[in-house]
Amino acid sequence: MALSDTVILNTKPADKPVKRNNGDGLYLLVRPSGAKWWCFDYLLARKRKTLNMDVYPDVALEQAREMREDARKLVAAGIDPSEHRKASKHEAVSNTLEAVARQ
Q1: Is the model's pLDDT at 90 over the cut of 90?
Q2: What is the distance of C-alpha 16 from the center of its chain?
Q3: Residue 60 is inside which H or E element, if any?
Q4: Of 40, 36, 28, which is closest to residue 74 (Cα–Cα)?
Q5: What are phi and psi of 77, to 5 degrees?
Q6: CA 39, CA 82: separation in Å to the nearest integer?
Q7: Which helix (H) or strand (E) segment is 58 a member of?
Q8: What's the pLDDT score for residue 88?
Q9: Torsion angle, CA of 89/90/92/97, rounded to 10 degrees?
Q10: What DSSP character marks residue 1?
Q11: Model-level pTM?
Q12: Is the four-CA dihedral 43, 49, 54, 60 of positive or negative sign?
């Protein structure tokens, strides 16, 4: 069953992390601290991996679904979404004015 905003808002933290499944590997992980994280489970090279995407409500349900679809496209192309994200962040940092000036 797909998540809705009402279900997300009514999910309260417990002693252990709580998963609210949305489908196709996307779920909301509610930690005991009350933080709600969007996560995506995927299989690449026969290994199960998890991509922690972002925090709810900073990323709404529809945005999380779009992020999941983007990650699924990367997996289908044989690219690890978490490695792709790390490389993108590294590239963004290396393109700062300070980095360019040092070169």
Answers
A1: no
A2: 20
A3: none
A4: 40
A5: -85, 0
A6: 11
A7: none
A8: 78
A9: 150
A10: -
A11: 0.81
A12: positive
